[in-house]
């Protein structure tokens, strides 16, 4: 049953089809966002410690910037609707709509049933990187987040400062939820600054040293009222491992910027998805 059939070459030669053509996706007005950003004032900041996480809030219509400070560091980002934690970032659908790695103009989409833009990438100082010869690129939505459960499964460890645990503690502290309740809201991430891809021979997820340097940043426009949580990954720049007490790790800075009143004109937060939710039983 494993022998190649006579028409194997023909089967492999079938042309690929994009599963979710994005021609009809609503496009962000980057010119409007950038115009509003030019006159924005900084309203707050959060410094995320190495091997830890912190939460922040961004009102709809404002901007937040994640910056590498002191040394090369990658971060794991979760987003939630500030008023309803059940609406959260959906990395799988974002990947299906935009691709494995996000670039300027791409959006972070929310979970069902809302499926709407939560945040739009407006600036990226690593936009020059593209895809390298290994097929690697930055800001991926393919990795899940380093977590204690996989560590326990693969090596029997009890490591508590992986990104999953960091995000759980940060959300619990920010919301007052217990750890068990908060953990249920932690989800797959945008790997900010992380350089990743799939090996061409085995299709395995790989990471390599991030090209990020102090001063590099990724900036977003908040499409809805947000709670964000960012973990400064215990792998540092992820050049060797991603759950480690020995990797060089550095803080990450999150800054919030508010545009001047009226700078966005008649912009409004996107509505929830228009599907009627009858599922064929209407």
Overview of the molecule:
- 17% of the residues lie in helices and 28% in strands.
- It is α+β, with helices and mostly antiparallel strands.
- It has one domain.
- Strands 2, 4, 5, 8, 9, 10 and 12 form a seven-stranded antiparallel sheet that branches. A six-stranded antiparallel sheet has the order 1-13-3-11-7-6.
- The longest helix has 13 residues, at 163-175.
Total number of strands:
13
Largest sheet, described in full? 7 strands, antiparallel
> Would you identify the regions where 5 or more consecutive residues have pLDDT less than 50?
none
- Report the total helices: 6
Number of domains: 1
Query: How are helices and strands ordered from N to C?
Result: HHEEEEEHEEEHHHEEEEE
Percent strand equals 25-35%
Coarse morphology: globular
N-to-C CA distance: 45 Å
Q: What would the average pLDDT be, to the nearest integer?
A: 96
Helix content: 10-25%
Q: Radius of gyration, rounded?
A: 20 Å
Give the class from helix and strand content and strand pairing. Answer: alpha+beta
Summed up:
By secondary structure, the protein is of the alpha+beta class. It is built from six helices and 13 strands. The termini are far apart.
Topology overview:
Elements: H1 8-12, H2 30-38, E1 41-48, E2 53-58, E3 63-68, E4 75-81, E5 84-88, H3 91-98, E6 107-109, E7 117-124, E8 137-140, H4 148-155, H5 163-175, H6 179-183, E9 190-198, E10 205-208, E11 217-222, E12 226-232, E13 252-258
Antiparallel strand pairs: 1-13, 2-12, 3-11, 3-13, 4-5, 4-9, 4-12, 6-7, 7-11, 8-9, 9-10
């Amino acid at each position: 049953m494993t022998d190649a059939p006579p028409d194997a070459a023909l089967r492999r030669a079938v042309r690929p089809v994009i599963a979710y053509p994005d021609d009809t996706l609503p496009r962000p007005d980057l010119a409007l966002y950038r115009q509003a950003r030019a006159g924005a004032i900084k309203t707050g900041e959060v410094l995320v410690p190495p091997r830890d996480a912190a939460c922040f809030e961004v009102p709809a219509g404002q901007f937040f910037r994640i910056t590498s400070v002191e040394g090369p560091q990658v971060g794991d980002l979760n987003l939630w609707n500030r008023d309803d934690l059940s609406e959260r970032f959906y990395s799988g659908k974002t990947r299906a709509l935009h691709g494995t790695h996000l670039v300027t103009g791409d959006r972070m989409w929310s979970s069902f049933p809302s499926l709407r833009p939560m945040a739009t990438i407006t600036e990226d100082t690593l936009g020059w990187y593209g895809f390298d010869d290994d097929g690697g690129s930055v800001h991926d939505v393919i990795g899940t987040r380093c977590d204690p459960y996989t560590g326990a499964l693969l090596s029997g460890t009890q490591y508590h400062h992986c990104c999953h645990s960091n995000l759980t503690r940060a959300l619990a502290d920010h919301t007052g939820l217990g750890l068990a309740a908060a953990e249920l809201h932690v989800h797959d991430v945008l790997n900010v600054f992380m350089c990743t891809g799939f090996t061409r021979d085995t299709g395995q997820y790989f990471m390599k040293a991030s090209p990020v340097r102090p001063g590099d940043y990724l900036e977003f426009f908040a499409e809805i009222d947000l709670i964000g949580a960012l973990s400064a990954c215990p792998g540092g720049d992820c050049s060797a491992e991603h759950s480690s007490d020995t990797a060089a790790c550095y803080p990450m800075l999150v800054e919030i910027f508010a545009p001047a009143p009226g700078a966005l004109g008649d912009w409004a937060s996107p509505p929830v998805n228009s599907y009627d939710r009858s599922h064929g039983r209407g």
